[in-house]
Structures are given as structure tokens and as C-alpha cells.
Input
Amino acid sequence: MPADNRGNSESGWRFPEVPYFWFILPGLLAYSILFIWPTIRSFYLSLYDWSGRGPLGPIVWEQNFRNIVHSDKFWQAAGNSFKLFIFIFIFQNTISLGLALLLNRGGASTHFFRVIIFLPQIMSAVATGIIWILMLDPIIGAINPFLADIGLESFQRQWQSDPAWALRTVMIVMAWQWNGMAVILYLAGLQNVPEDLRHAAMIDGAGRFRTFKDITFPMLAPAFTIVTVLSFILIFRAFDLIYILGGPAGVPDGATLVLGVLIYSDAFGQGAFNSQARFSFAMAEGVTLFIFLAAISGLLIWLLGRREAAVKT
Amino acid sequence: MTDISSLARNRTDRRSLLKAGGALAATGALTTFTFGIRTAGAQDTVSVTMWGNHPEWAEPMQNLIAAFQDANPGIEIEFSASPGDQYAAKLETAIQGGETSDIFGDQEGGFIVRARAGGDLPMIDLTGKVDVSNLTDAARGQVEVDGVVYGAPLAAYTVGLAINNTVFADAGLTPPTTWDELTSTAQALKDAGVAAPIVLGGKDWVHPYFMYIGLSSTVLRPEGVQAVREGTRALNEPEVVEATQLLLDLMPFYNVGFEATDYTTAKAIFANNQGAMMVAGTADFTGYYQVNPDADLSFVAWPGPVADSTITTTGFELLYGASAFSDPEKQDAAAVFVNWLAGDEAQQIVMDTISLSVSKNITESTDPIRTQTAVAIQGGDVPVWYAVPELNGSVTVTQDNHGGLWTGRITAQEFADLQQAAVNPSGA
Output
């Protein structure tokens, strides 16, 4: 007589083999209700003409997606998102990586600096955005007077209203916010690089740069993959901090408009009195962004995964 | 002799009150303010619901409703207010579900749009039940569509120019009444070292929009705005374009970095005596005094292109009517309230404690800014453009293009052409 045949059905499904199912069920349900279903629903609603209120209008999917292709604002926002990603990518693979290398050396104050560097990541984006706005303000802000006080008057700018500087300002603030994530990920990667490999290279006469280039950086391939893919996704769907800094129109004149903010503005309008909320069009923009992010992220993971495999071999 | 059962009832009532207080606090924490004033001893009281969109007006609205209930003991109003930016979505969702408040509160322009769209209306015909004869023409135009009366506005608000009296007095200047004076005064203020002769929050569209419609309306005058609505005049006529050009010519006098200055920061600059003039609506002054309780401020109309051509733009708070989804008894109660709201007793309370009156007879207020506004309106007044269906498209054009004006992407003429293209003379 079998000791226990609970769940041993004719179909072959065996409860003892999937006990974790009950543990993941609440999370799976929540994920399905809060993410999977709205995502599927977004694809459906993007096919219609709908302002977000009342009954659905006619099916206009072709018009929605054609309007996206012909929308100057969409391409302006996409271009700004791309520039932002490129800047963050370069920043994280130079400054953030450099900070991670410094912190990896250890020392009495290492933990203190880790906290300081990671702090912007866990702070409220809205609160930090407002603080940055106040600091950058040309009348009541602190940054321009500070520059004047240290003899750098020529570096004073209208940081947020000068079209040439507005996006650069957003880039700097975003880099400040996302720096902590990259530093921690690279630091975790660095701690997995075997010390004996580095020592062997140095014994063979390799200098610090050569050791970094040929040993440390290749061994950081998994961390590089995670940092790159995460940054790509997070920057292209960035919203909160940029919305606070640039407002719904991405001031000045769309210079700081990114895809996340554009989609929000199209979906909910730019404030009271606005009768121009275009929910289904915004969903079509969201669907386009979703497909783009999924495709490029998949490509990045495949390409960088091959690089990781090459490093291992 | 004391009735024991009544003591028991009193205890229960006290407990109920405590519970109600707790529920009120919890509800308040969820950003919606709700209260109901019960009429003691009324056995056949009709209870009706009413929604508002200014939670900060809880106390004056409570007083207004209490005054109504004193005069109409058979009707009890349960009032709740949601933040203004959530109200439209709440109302439209409620209409779709057939669950609006009994006293139906629509946004300005709403009655016109709904009535002209036809079909089943969410509000009922109150012709003969609500006396609108005392309402101003603009107010009446909001609630009477093709001869059918649907209700009455709660209040009006007027947009013009706020003046910082302290800054003007320090510079020895007086508020401008013409465009030339506006420019020369701004220059004099700048020469006197004022950081922002004109404060503009250009980060969103609201300030530029009100400056645009205000200055353009000084050219058009009320009859010209009406002509644009009817399609017989255009917003891209050369003299109207000059108003947009003035917006650009005044750029040296705006606060530094105005293109990225948000509404709140702009208010702070102005109220803290770093700015001299600023676009302002009646309701904005509460915010100024919150920033600086000692601020010495006043309100004037928009300066015009020539002498005696000042103008103000006026909009309306919620338009109240009777819900089509309520039962007849509640509809009748709602009609009684709306009729009372349109009367002078209610409108004096509005003028003293809430905003501007919509009655022709009520021009005095215990609030000095409202009294000044009532004077400013005498120079000429037009509806805020977004409140009339024909000109509602001006909002989107401004949202999409005011930034282009500041950066030079588009000219004043191109901006005016876009505005004209958005005019819908049919109002459909």
C-alpha cells in the first residue's frame, strides 16, 4: 500500500511535486490582477477611440498607431529618452563603476559611503524632484549662488528653462538618482571576481589598467548585463522624477519630454479644464513602448548573455 | 421629569456622534470631505446628496447649507467634496453608472455641451422652478440653454492681474491700465531692482493661457469674443495677434527662468514681495496669504490697448441642477435648493465667504479683494474661453504651443493661426 498518494491523479499532476504552488499563489494572483490583466486590457483598449470615460468608441487601431508614427512629440520624446539612456549608460559604466572599484578596496568609511551613494535610490522621487527644482531655481535656488560664491559665475545657468541645458540638467539629476543602483550591482559583481586571478595577472606583470581590462571587467559581465538591461528599461519608462522636473509638457517646449511623461499627459491631459484626454491613444503609445522595450531588452539579454558565456569559456 | 428612555437615546446618539466623528475623520483622510446637517425632529425630511470640488471650502459650504436648511427645514443636504482635479472623472463615471448626487453639480460649460449634444441628459429641466432673472448674463448663459433652465452656478471667479501693493509703493508706481503703461511700469520696476516685475509660472499652461485670453479679450471686447464664437471674427486678425506679441515683448520683465517656473513657486515669488504683478483668479489670493499673511495685495483688470479698455475674464464654479437619476421627491428638493442658491440671500453668503456672486444685485463683500474684483469687472468682462464650447480648443493649443512661443519655435502670428484653427463656431 502506498504511503501517501494525495494528488496522484490519472492526469499525472502530483501535489507533492509542486508544494510551492500554494506559496506562490497569492503573489501570482496579485501579479495577474495588477499587471498581467491590465497589460492585456491595454492592448485591447489601444484598438479603440476612447477618452477614458464613458463607453468605448469605434475601433480605430490603424489611426491610433499611424498617429504615433506621424507624431512629432512622440519622436521628440523617444529621442530624449534615447539621449537620456545613452548618458546614463556611459555614466554608470564610468563614474558608477569607478565608485564601485573604490568602494571595493575596503576601508573604515566604506559602509558610510555605500549608504550615501545608495540614498538617492531609496528617496521619494517626488520629494527629491521638488528639492532639485528649488535648488535649481534662478531666483530662489541655491546652486547659482553657490557657483558664484566659489568663483564659478561663468557656470551659472538657467538650468531648467534654457533649452540647451534643460535635458542636460535632467540627465545629471537622473544620473545622481540611478548611480546608487549601478554602484551596488557592480560592487556585488566585483566581490565575485576571484582575488587569485587578479593576483596571478599582476604577478605575470600586468599593470592595474591591464588587470582591470582583461580580468576584472570581463568577470563583471553578469553585472554589466543587469545594469545595462535594467537601466534601459527604467530610463525608457521613467516618469516620476522627470515629470516633477519638466512638468507634463517637458519644459521648455518639449526639451525634457520623455516617453513616460508623454504617455501620462496624453492619457490624463495636462490638468484641469482639459477636454483632450486621449486614453486609448496613450495606451497605443504604451503598447508601442512595451513592444519596443521587450524586443530591445530581449536582444540585449541575448547579446550580453553570449558575451557572458564567452567570458566563462 | 427625566425620561429614562430619552437618556438612553441620548447616550446612543452621543455614541453615534462619536462614531460619525471617527468616520468623518477617516473619510477626510481619504481626501474627500463629507458632512450632513440634520434637522432636529423632522419626521418627513427629504435628504439629498450634493457634491463639490473644493474641499478647502468645507466651512463656508457648511454655513451656506445651514442657512438653506434654516429656511427650508424639510430638506436635508449631505455634502461631500472631492479635489478639483478628480471631480470631472468622478462625475463622468457617476453619470455612466446613473449614480450622481441628487443636487447635480456640473462643471462650467457642462450644461451647454450636454444640452446641445442631446440624448438622455443627466440633469432635468428646471424651467419655472428656478428663477434665474437675478443672475448675471454670463451666469445665465451657463445654465439656460435654448430657453431651458437647468440650474444655477454656485459662484463665479474672475481672472485679472494681482498687484503687490508693497512693491508698487516702494517703487512709487501705480497699477497700469493700458498696454503702454504695462510695459513702462514693468520697465520702471525692473530699473528699481524688482526681481520679477511680472511673475509668470510658465511650466504649465495655466498662466500663459490666462494672459493670452485676457490680453486678447482687451482687443476683442465682449462683443468681439462673441463674434469669434459665431465665426464672424478671427483670433488671427492683426490687432488680436498684437496681444500675443505683447506676451513676447514682455518677456524681459518676467521672472528669470519663468519657462520652467511652476505655479506654486511663482505664487511664492509674488507673495514674498519679489514680484510686482501676476496673473490671478479670485481664489488665488487665499494661497498668497498662506505664503505671506502680511502680503498687501489688490486686484485689477487686464490693461487694454487703449484707455478705458480694461477687461476681466470670468468663469464659474460648479453649476448646480437636479439629477435625472434621482426620484421625483429628491428632484423637487434639489430644485428648491438650486432656486434658493440663485437668490440674493445665498449669493450674499457666497460673496462674503466663498467666491464671487453670480447675482446682479450682490456687488459688496466683506472681503476686500472680492469688492475690488466686482469693480474691475465693470470695465468689461468675458467668459473664460475654455468654458464656452466654441473656444474650448484654445486650451489644447496653448498646452501644446506656449513653450514654442518662448523658445521662438513659433511666432505670435503662427500661435494665433493655431488658435483660430481650433475655434469651433458651431460649438459642437
In short: Residues 71-312 of chain A form a domain with the MetI-like fold fold (CATH 1.10.3720.10). The interface with chain B takes residues 52-55, 73, 133-134, 137-140, 158-161, 163, 166, 246-249, 251-254, 270-276 of chain A (CB under 8 Å). Residues 1-7 of chain A have pLDDT under 50 and may be disordered. Chain A is about 70% helix and 0% strand.
